[in-house]
Amino acid sequence: MYYWDKDTECMDRARLRELQSQRLVKTVRHAYANVPAYRRKFEEIGLTPDDIKGIDDLPKIPFTLKSDFRDNYPFGMFAVPMDQVVRVHASSGTTGKSTVVGYTRGDIATWSELMARTLGAGGTTKGDIVHNAYGYGLFTGGLGAHYGAEKIGASVIPISGGNTKRQLQIMEDFGSTVLCCTPSYALLLGESAAEAGIDMRKTSLRVAFLGAEPWTENMRREIEDLLAVDALDIYGLSEVIGPGVSYECMEKSGLHINNDHFIAEIIDPETGAVLPPGSVGELVFTSLTKEALPLLRYRTRDVTYLDDEPCPCGRSFVRMHRVMGRSDDMLIIRGVNVFPSQIESVLIDIEGTEPHYLIVVDREHGKLDEMEVWVEVSPDLVSDEVRALESLERKIAHELHSLLGITVKVKLVEPKTIARSEGKAKRVIDRRDLD
Amino acid sequence: MKVSQLSVFIENKSGRLADVTRTLAENSINVRALSIADTIDYGLLRMIVNDPVSAKASLTAAGFTVALTEVLAIEVPDRPGGLAGIIDILAASGINIEYMYAFVGKSGENAIVVFRIEKVDEAIPILQEKGVRILTGDELHSL
After folding, report:
1. Which listed site, A93, A247, A272, B53, has its alpha carbon 20 to 30 Å from B14?
2. Tens digits of per-residue pLDDT, A267-280?
3. Contact between chains at A413 and B5 (C-beta distance less than 8 A)
4. Which of B27, B51, B69 is the C-terminal boundary of a domain?
């Protein structure tokens, strides 16, 4: 077994609980004093920070939703003045506006530490060469893994995504030992290596930290076989901190939540009631140490269950099962969050009317996720000229690309060919095998 | 002078063209000329029919998306250079042709070609000045 900070990660559970209580009280006071949106939520139900004396009072706190970020766009959820914010990241929101998150210098230090734990749990040390193929930019994946690897003292190759041939060459020539990327990109790298005749067993690559999109045990076996690595699942979302929220140890049986920094709950998405360990429901996070963006009972919409049984690795942190689905209609395509409402808004802008459309997501073997948007051709859109229709397809694809940042294939279809059920159209067909 | 053309959007699925022709047959509509422009995923079926208004209504009722466009039906001398003469007139005036296709049947000794022209209102007097005959809808349907 490998550890970055064994004393903390294997901390006694009673001590951990006490630490969580102390930190929760402090976080609630910080959020209440500095974020009007939190203060309003408390006042609406007559709650004051004094009512929160410890972790047992957690269920009294109102939930925070993704829409709170939209309503307070861009920096309204921040609890410190901007001169203390040293970094911002953003992910897509349900409509046009993105979800913006901020970090103080202290938050970046915490995040680096948590990613060091994540990479350390797979045996990463300062002797390693970390091939970081997560995207660098507003997305938290690239810089999150980068800072964690640097914290450990490993040599980081900040290669970011794309250009698979070059990635393989660098991996071979530089002797990369650790891979960080999305699971579908790991599959693509593996397939491409096989096609190029590269024997991964002869390279130095040893372990892969894969996250930012849903995957399965079957994919794990395939990736481990193709790349000759241990493939570990990592989890995070920018609202909570980015990658580093939870991580697998070499047991590969659930992801340890960094409980000294985050409390996880599972709730019934319909009623909001807290469910006991083992029950499947929506994952909710409360941050315990964040300065710029304290987060109280944030509903992630990710569906999973918690396992508080002790892990053979000795870590006291509660484990979450890999994410099993969503309690909303968000799709994750190549690590990018996509909401059908975003696609709808683009089509409304172009067509001027309520569009009929279908999102078809597919993952062909050894390839990245593909998203097609089928759009019914209304009488207003149809033309006698093919080039008018082709330019319409291109325009929709271009608008979607500039909003989402991923390539989308647009296909025009005949009216009434997209199934409507009970007056409401089914918007998504997900052909990826994610069960 | 201008003639109405129907354009029907058809996905590349087997049986769709048959659905269109059956719908027209059931509504006693006679197809006088047609052409298909195709792409990987769909095609555009363009037609001149004897009754474009009721053809559009019946196709729309059958679930098709239909556009009506104005085109010109032009008499073309049925001999070598006949078509070239007409296209030269348009080219010399800087008028672009979007697409064209031949009509089934003849007007006397002349062939009939359907032209979809960018600046149709400019093209009509230029062609007429050069003695080119443009058929009206009624003339076309009585052939």
Report:
1. B53
2. 999 999 999 999 99
3. no
4. B69
**Within 10 A of A100 (CB to CB), how many other CB atoms are there?**
23
- Highest average pLDDT, of A14-18, A351-355, A403-407, B102-106, comes from A14-18
pLDDT at A309 over 70: yes
pLDDT higher for A239 or A423?
A239
Inter-chain touch A413–B42, beta carbons under 8 Å: yes
Q: Which residues of B touch A (CB under 8 A)?
A: 5, 7, 9-11, 16, 37, 39, 41-42, 44, 46, 60, 63-67, 69, 98-99, 116
pLDDT-based confidence at residue A365 (cuts at 50, 70, 90): confident
Which of A309, A328, A347 finishes a domain? Answer: A328
Across the interface, which of B11, B39, B98 has its CB nearest the CB of A413?
B11
Contact B67 A411 (CB under 8 A): no
Phi, psi of A6 (to 5 degrees): -60, -40
CB pairs under 8 A between A and B: 55
User: Would A207 be classed as within a structural domain?
Assistant: yes
What does the pLDDT average to over A232-237? 97
Is the reported ipTM for this assembly greater than 0.90?
A: no
Nearest CA to A59 out of A24, A32, A30 is that of: A24
Q: What are the backbone angles phi and psi of residue A393, rounded to the nearest 5°? A: -60, -45
Residues 360-419 of A with CB under 8 A from B: 377-379, 381-386, 389-390, 411-417
| Domain count for chain B | 2
For residue A414, the enclosing domain spans: 333-430
Q: Mutation target for A interface from B9, B38, B100: give the one with most A CBs within 10 A.
A: B9
pLDDT at A96: 64
At A164, which CATH number?
3.40.50.12780
Contact A379 B65 (CB under 8 A): yes
Distance from CA of A418 to the nearest CA of B (A): 12
Gap between the Cα atoms of B143 and B138, Å rounded: 9
List the beta bridge partners of residue B110: B77, B107
Residues spanned by the domain of B120: 71-141
Q: What is the dihedral of CA A306, A309, A314, A319, to 10 degrees?
A: -10
Is the same domain home to A277 and A347?
A: no
pLDDT tens digits, A52-102: 999 999 999 999 999 999 999 999 999 999 999 999 999 876 666 889 999
Q: pTM to 2 decimals? A: 0.78
Q: Backbone phi, then psi, for B48, in 5-degree steps? A: -110, 125
